[in-house]
Write a structure and sequence with these properties.
The chain contains 16 helices and seven strands. The relative contact order is 0.15. Helices cover 57% and strands 9% of the residues. The longest helix has 25 residues.
């Protein structure tokens, strides 16, 4: 595979090359009557927009789409979904959809449109995607992750004089207050967000740690100079998190989706050209389980990180709170997440309001 090629995230499988993927998909199909769905993210669909009716396989290769082409044409019973269109403002959706359909027609001629497929309703004049302008259903889907990333941004600015440990403690307690739910994925991102380490000291650490921190920051917690920029960063991070967690949830279901042809849809993968997102997804590894949401996560702690008091403390804090909440949930079987989600818009308005006050106080 080339450096700019599309890559595939599978929550519970790791492949070193396309041939291994093909063997895995074929074995599922022929031995178990199981199928895989591949979701395309925004970045991959944007690559398709560079194709035309005159494009050739060489153009597909130059755009990094050849691995996708290979899997679609050499695997039986693959399902493909242009899910990344949901991430786009309405003004870009028509072109994106046409480009996706052209790619399928020209470079996957054996494909069959799913009669159950639905079309996304959108405002063709919309130029930006803003959380407050989403539908109620979309707010419910993206809300928990958008709120979590907003909290990280708010605490980083409004509590900048707090210690790194105090910032993390505030984050975990605020998430409980607003959602009554702690996601291990965003919890790990928050730990890196509040890790205050001088750049010179950071560069003495192993390259794996440096790259992980860099990818997390760029993908989920990059900096912004005004509220509108922060809101876009957080919503993009929420959408990226949805790609990954959607794959995890779908692939962990105890009851796979039955298809009309006698097969079952048992796994969902993500096709992306966003290298930092792909690397981040592999740095927080999913472990299937029948408990809870469907998976645990496994994170990395190199020996060099264990030497830092910060990491020992924040890991101890999060482990203690998670264990305590698990016991409480087991004993009481109560969860306020649903009622908290009914108030998600007001909660987000409150956090955005605090960020607005912060930016308004900055001299022009």
């Amino acid at each position: 595979m080339q450096a700019n090629d599309v890559v595939f995230y599978s929550p519970f499988q790791r492949f070193s090359n396309i041939d291994d993927m093909l063997i895995y998909i074929r074995s599922k199909f022929f031995l178990k009557k199981e199928c895989v769905q591949i979701n395309l993210d925004n970045c991959t669909i944007q690559r398709m927009e560079k194709l035309s009716h005159e494009s050739t396989i060489e153009d597909v290769k130059s755009l990094g789409l050849y691995p996708l082409y290979t899997i679609l044409n050499e695997s039986p019973n693959i399902f493909l979904c242009p899910f990344g269109i949901h991430e786009m403002p309405g003004i870009n959706i028509s072109k994106a959809r046409e480009s996706y359909e052209l790619f399928c027609k020209k470079f996957w001629p054996t494909h069959i449109d799913d009669p159950r497929a639905t079309s996304l309703k959108y405002d063709k004049n919309q130029t930006t995607v803003d959380f407050q302008h989403l539908s109620e259903e979309e707010k419910y889907v993206y809300g928990p992750w958008y709120l979590a990333y907003l909290l990280i941004q708010k605490i980083t600015r409004c509590n900048k004089n707090d210690s790194a440990v105090d910032k993390f403690s505030r984050y975990i307690h605020d998430v409980i207050y607003y959602l009554d739910m702690i996601s291990a994925f965003e919890l790990e991102i928050a730990k890196y967000a509040f890790w205050d380490i001088p750049e010179k000291e950071l560069h003495n650490l192993p390259s794996e740690i440096i790259c992980r921190r860099k990818n997390f920051k760029k993908n989920f917690i990059s900096s912004g100079k005004n509220l509108e920029r922060i809101k876009r960063i957080c919503l993009n991070a929420a959408m990226d998190t949805l790609w990954l967690k959607g794959c995890q949830a779908k692939s962990a279901l105890d009851a796979p989706e039955d298809l009309d042809n006698g097969y079952k849809l048992t796994e969902t993968w993500l096709a992306t050209t966003d290298e930092k997102l792909y690397k981040s997804s592999n740095d927080i590894e999913s472990i299937p389980t029948k408990n809870g949401f469907g998976y645990f996560v496994k994170v990395l702690r190199e020996e060099e990180m264990k030497k830092y008091e910060y990491w020992n403390i924040v890991d101890s804090i999060s482990d203690g709170i998670l264990i305590q909440r698990f016991i409480q949930r087991f004993l009481s079987n109560k969860n306020n997440f649903s009622s908290k989600m009914n108030n998600i818009s007001n909660s987000i308005n409150e956090i955005e309001g605090e960020l607005k006050e912060y930016f308004d106080a900055i001299p022009a």
